[in-house]
Amino acid sequence: MGSGLRPTGDADALAGDPAAQDEQSALLTDLIEAMTRHTASVPNVLSVLHARLSGQVGLQASSVFTLDSDDGTLDRVGGLGESFADHVTLAGAVFRAPAGGPPVRAAGRLALRLRIGGETVGVLVLTGTRLDRLRPDTLATTGLALATTVQSLASERSRHFIAHASATLRKLFEEGTVAASVEAAGELLARSTAQAFHTEQSAVHLIGEHGRIRYASGVSLNVEENAALRSRLLGKFAHESPVWRATAQSGAPLLVEDVAQSPVRAGGLVQTMGLRSFIAIPLLSATGPVGMVICGDASGTRHWTGTDRAFARTLAVEGGLIVDSARLRQAEAQHVAELTRRAYHDALTGLPNRSQLLLTTEQAVADAARDGARAALLLLDLDGFKGVNDTAGHHAGDVLLHAVGQRLLETVRDGDLVARLGGDEFAVLLTHDPDEAEASAIAGRIHRRLLEPYVIDGALITVGASIGIALCPADATDAATLMRAADAAMYQAKRHGGGVRHDR
Asked: How much is the pTM?
């Protein structure tokens, strides 16, 4: 083997020690019983080994290692005693050596390759004072017992992982198909990654224009912690974070086992959550990176396996699909909302239009009938508006109409509706159970406010208003009749030179 490693096994050393042979024979029996009568586990097998061999061969410590085929790291899956540092070095040498050789030792340590079905599944490393007394059949049976156990546990872990990964991805897909925004998709991915890797915390941030962070949320954080997170991140450039640069440039997840050994942004996600180990997953859309999800532990460092890395890559791909899908739904919802807004709002003033007024009035009349309450409708027409258009031009007329709309909004109460019906005609729907006196007072206040001069393009412009009032149920019990009554009252006011009119 080189490096001072040499084959073990000294049959002569056992010839004069029947007690050692008896203990090893008993060990074989115990191993068989442990494998057939108890749940297979590496600690169980090692405890049997120590119970029989600590006295006879001076067994002091034991370790079983497996090799992560994805990243080549060694995982200690079980052990007794405190010789880990020495053991991992020897185990690594055995994994690198050709298979098929005898057990090897160096300075009171013995390493046994664990093989089953022609495949190396692990290495057993022992520390003891008389390890050369171990019989070949003892080592062979011990190796087989541990190899069988390691293989069985690996198969069980694989089954659990496949089931867990499948459930995680299925739930992520189901919830991702209804995520209505990129923000919702990001928070979903943050929760899902924390559940996938059983981490303590998770968070997400999204970038906007010019690469600045526009959204940040710690899924596992309370209100105060989230407020601190947003204050530290919003508006900052994402590329200032070493973690962001690593994920955005590679397009792949970053798995950090010890934050102390990895650069992070001061005051960023990792520091704010106090993480000591984490996984950072980029959120990639068809147009490039749009954000990043981080999940991790604050309680300690953590070894990420090759399986973890592969799963993180899968989640990154799935996350990209969910983000793109959510982006499309969000854009579609915004488009529909804009079309709806245009259908029910006046393009010039931004006020609700006639269609919206009719719908709201119908609902107000129905509510009044159900609750025994009242509603009032004011229709108003500007006096002198045509002269503004003729003398100052249509641009001044448009500015005037917009200003009238703003004054109406400033004059009415919260919950009342101001609408533009077309031309220079407006409407105000009063809710909150107004009586005739209250409706007349509000109409009078509107009339006085609209009479105040307007400054348009540096010139003072003055117009009046004719306002008609109709009450429900006093004047009408349906929306159409209420509109006709208010319209008739408005024309009565106009015929009398403007002002406020309520004719029954």
From this structure: 0.60
